[in-house]
Write a structure and sequence with these properties.
Oligomer: single chain
Radius of gyration: 20 Å
Low-confidence stretches: none
Strand order of the largest sheet: 7-1-8-9
Mean pLDDT: 92
Strand content: 15-25%
Helix content: 25-40%
Length: 233
């Protein structure tokens, strides 16, 4: 068994594992307990009282973080005609049509998000087995299949994040960086927590927000008082 490093041990000591922290306190503590020599990502895990095996209890969506994510996103747009120049003007990193699809079929994957116009979806079906497992398949519900490529590109560049329930009923979302000011992290947290709360399925019974944990890339998990979330959002 690998021995725990000194920095990790010191970080864990800062957190009371038996305590439920308020949202603001949890964010501040997560930043304080972050010890890596890089700008760690701040993450939240919502454990929900849903059964993802039922389609009507699958929580999935996308939201633009009001304070951004601190990450640089490389956006690929697969489209045709005048939408090519529109996507380029909006700041897309890669824009094309059949040529892009062929490159992806050949193993090229130098991008973080894929946006497509509806007219290209028939052709994109050829690369669904490549994009799907990586969570990159364009989806109209997530705003990545659209005729408004300018808006879609702008949202992705501004910090749009996707979220979905895992098999265990947990939703993981990255909502900023350690270098963010506390109020910016709180702003982002409110946005994602509000979206999760509003997405509660009518068929979900019992306690919906079972537990919420905030952490950084390397830091310890900090349990959040779910009652405080209701007051926060």
């Amino acid at each position: 068994m690998k021995k725990m490093g000194k920095k990790r041990q010191e970080a864990i000591k800062k957190v009371d594992a038996t305590k439920l922290y308020g949202v603001k306190e949890a964010i501040a503590l997560a930043k304080d307990a972050a010890y890596a020599n890089f700008d760690e990502t701040v993450d939240v895990a919502f454990r929900l009282g849903v059964d993802p095996r039922h389609a009507d209890q699958m929580i999935r969506g996308a939201i633009v973080m009001p304070a951004g994510t601190g990450a640089t996103v490389k956006v690929c747009v697969i489209t045709s005609g005048e939408n090519i120049s529109k996507a380029e003007a909006a700041g897309a990193d890669i824009v094309g049509g059949d040529d892009i699809i062929q490159k992806i079929q050949g193993g090229w994957m130098d991008f973080d998000r894929v946006i497509a116009t509806p007219d290209m979806m028939g052709k994109i079906g050829r690369i669904a087995r490549i994009l799907g497992p990586r969570g990159l398949m364009p989806n109209p519900k997530l705003g990545t299949v659209t005729t408004d490529v300018e808006k879609a590109v702008s949202e992705q560049k501004a910090g749009k994040v996707e979220y979905r329930t895992e098999k265990t009923g947990i939703v993981h979302v990255k909502f900023g960086k350690k270098s963010f000011e506390d109020d910016k992290l709180l702003e982002n947290f409110k946005a994602i927590a509000g979206a999760i709360v509003r997405a509660k399925p009518a068929s979900a019974k019992g306690n919906y927000l079972k537990s919420v944990v905030i952490s950084t890339s390397m830091g310890p998990g900090i349990k959040v008082d779910t009652n405080d979330i209701g007051a926060t959002v």
